[in-house]
Amino acid sequence: MATMGLKTHKRLAPRRWADKQSRTWYLTIRFLLQLIFRFYVRRFRAYGVGNVPTEGSAFLVANHASGIDPLMMGVGIPHRILLGPGKVEIFKNPVFTYVMEKIGIFPLHQGTADAAAVRTMVDAYRKGRIVVVYPEGGRSKTGEMMPFMEDFTRLVIKLRACLIPAGIAGARELLPLGSWIPRPDTACAVVIGEPFDLSEFEGRGLSAEVLAEATAVLWNRVHDMVQEAEERRQTLAADQ
User: Fold this and answer.
1) What is the pLDDT of residue 89?
2) 234 CB-near residues (< 8 Å, 6+ apart)
3) For position 219, which CATH number holds?
4) Would you tell me how many other CB atoms lie within 10 Å of the CB of residue 53?
5) For the chain, which ranges sit under pLDDT 70?
6) In-domain check, residue 161
7) What is the pLDDT of residue 78?
8) In angstroms, rounded to a whole number, what is the distance separating the alpha carbons of residues 186 and 81?
9) DSSP designation for 39
10) Share of the chain above pLDDT 90, in %
C-alpha cells in the first residue's frame, strides 16, 4: 500500500469512496471469480480463513506481487466483503472506474503519501470493514517481500487497529507482470494468520526507532504467512 497523496484528483478519490461499494456488485463478481478459480485456475486454496472474524473491523495486511492479488483475497475469504486499494493508473477509463468503485477498490498513488487513500481506509475501518492493505508500497518486481512503509505502522498504532497477516504465493505464476490473462491450472495459495495488534508499542512515542521495531514485527508476521503459503503452493503444484 502506498500511503497518503498530496495531489489527488477529486473525481477519483471522493471523501466517502467506501460508501460507493455495492454489495450486489461485489457478490456477483466474486461468484463469477469463484467459478473461474475453481474450473480454470483449479489449484487455488485459501488456508486459515476462519482467522478473519465474521464481523468487526480489521486491516488484512498482505504481500503484493501481482495485480491478481486482490482477486485471490476476495475469492479466498467468502464470508466478508473486502475493500482495498488499486493503483491510480487503472482508474483512467470511466467504465472501469465505475466497476472498481462498485466492487470496493479505491485509487491509490503508489510510492507517495496518499492522504485521500488513507482517509478512505480509516473511514472504512471505523465502519467495521475489512480493509486489504499492501504496506510494501507497490508490487514487488522480484516476488520477494519488500520493506514495509512505516507510515502505515504509525497509522495502525494510533488507531489501535486489529491486524490480520496474510501471505500470497503463486500470484506471479498465475498472472505474470505484463499479462492480462491468468494461466490455467496454476498452483497458488493464500494463508491467513491469527489477528494481532501493535499495542506493545503504544505509549512509547513514535520515534524512528520505535516505528522501525514495530514495522519489523508487522513485516515478520506477514513474511511467516508468505513462507507457509509458498509451502502450500508447492504441495498443490506437486499434486497432479
Assistant:
1) 83
2) 187
3) 3.40.1130.10
4) 14
5) 1-15, 111-113, 240
6) yes
7) 96
8) 25
9) I
10) 72
Q: With respect to residue 5, please indicate whether it lies within any of the assigned structural domains.
A: no
Amino acid symbol at 110: Q
Gap between the Cα atoms of 4 and 147, Å rounded:
17
Q: Which three cell numbers stand for residue 158?
A: 494510533
| Domain, as residue range, for 85 | 17-238
CB-based contact 1:135 (threshold 8 Å): yes
Give the pLDDT of residue 4. 37
Cβ neighbours of residue 109 under 8 Å, at least 6 residues apart?
A: 2, 5, 7, 8, 87, 88, 117
CA–CA separation, 161 vs 199, rounded Å?
9
- 188 within some domain: yes
**34-81 confidence digits (pLDDT tens):** 999 999 999 999 999 999 999 999 999 999 999 999 999 999 999 999
Does residue 9 sit within a domain? no
Number of domains in the chain: 1
How far is the C-alpha of 159 from the C-alpha of 151, rounded, in Å? 12
Residue 226 CA to residue 95 CA, distance in Å, equals 34
Question: What pLDDT shows up at residue 12?
Answer: 47
Q: How many residues are given for the chain?
A: 240
Name beta bridge partners: 189. 45, 169
pTM for the structure as a whole:
0.90
End-to-end CA distance of the chain: 35
Q: What's the confidence (pLDDT) of residue 107? A: 86
DSSP H helical ranges for the chain: 23-36, 69-76, 94-103, 115-126, 150-159, 171-174, 208-238
